[in-house]
């Protein structure tokens, strides 16, 4: 039998990804990546702490990020991404910028974080009013609200799940239910937080239903990292990635937003 050697495989371009130790959605990240790009993942060291502000601080320490990025430099990625939302917003905008600086110094290459990519995506979509869905407790959700507000973006509504573990097991139907609960008439977009929350397939469905752009933690992370490389993420019918899917509904003035309950008070529904 004749065999033809084509000189492959095709040259690959690399994205280095630093993820928290409990990250379980490697396969979802790959769905946004074009064929010519490889993802090279490494994880932060395990710590016996549930999802919380304390965990967010632990997995985003500069020494931890430095060591993780150094493990990736041997394979020479073109950009490195820190794929953790809470870990990159817990220190506010100044803290997020400092993380990027620490990663860039460790690897001498461009760096992005999930929360930095979120603000970049909101600017790309010209969004000034956003609704939020999180799997977090109220204290972590409140920290996200504060981060977004610090960037000058108003939070029009919020729904959260109160989870501290096994977030990757949340089904799409629960994500969709929370999205419907969070979005009101004033929202210009919806952000679904947490890189451990599955979102790829639900984004187009929610955009069609809600008539606003829907962005998620893993989506914005991959979008921003690939943009640093001069290439595009793969996401048909996702407004951030596919301009043909974008809509621009007219929204009324922003109403007063109810405050989140104190920690420990369970959300209705």
UniProtKB/TrEMBL annotation:
InterPro entries: Iso_Racemase_Enz_sf, MaiA/AMDase. It comes from the Bacteria. Residues 249-269 are annotated as: Disordered. Signal peptide: none annotated. Gene3D superfamilies: 3.40.50.12500. This is Decarboxylase.
């Amino acid at each position: 039998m004749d065999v033809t050697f084509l000189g492959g495989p095709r040259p690959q371009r690399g994205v280095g990804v630093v993820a928290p130790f409990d990250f379980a959605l490697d396969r979802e990240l790959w769905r946004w990546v074009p064929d010519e790009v490889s993802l090279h993942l490494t994880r932060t060291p395990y710590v016996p702490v549930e999802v919380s502000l304390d965990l967010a601080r632990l997995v985003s320490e500069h020494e931890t990020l430095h060591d993780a990025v150094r493990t990736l430099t041997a394979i020479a990625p073109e950009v490195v991404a820190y794929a953790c939302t809470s870990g990159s917003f817990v220190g506010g905008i100044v803290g997020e910028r400092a993380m990027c600086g620490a990663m860039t110094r460790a690897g001498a290459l461009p760096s992005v974080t999930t929360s930095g990519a979120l603000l970049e995506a909101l600017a790309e979509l010209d969004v000034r009013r956003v609704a939020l869905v999180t799997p977090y407790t109220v204290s972590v959700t409140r920290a996200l609200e504060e981060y977004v507000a610090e960037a000058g973006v108003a939070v029009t509504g919020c729904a959260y799940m109160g989870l501290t573990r096994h977030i990757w097991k949340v089904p799409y139907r629960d994500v969709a239910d929370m999205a419907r609960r969070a979005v009101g008439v004033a929202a210009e977009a919806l952000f679904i937080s947490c890189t451990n929350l599955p979102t790829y397939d639900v984004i187009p469905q929610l955009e069609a239903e809600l008539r606003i752009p829907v962005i998620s933690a893993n989506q914005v992370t991959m979008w921003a990292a690939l943009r640093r490389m001069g290439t595009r993420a793969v996401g048909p019918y996702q407004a951030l990635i596919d301009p043909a899917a974008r809509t621009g509904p007219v929204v009324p003035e922003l109403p007063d937003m109810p405050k989140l309950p104190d920690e420990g008070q369970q959300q209705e529904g």
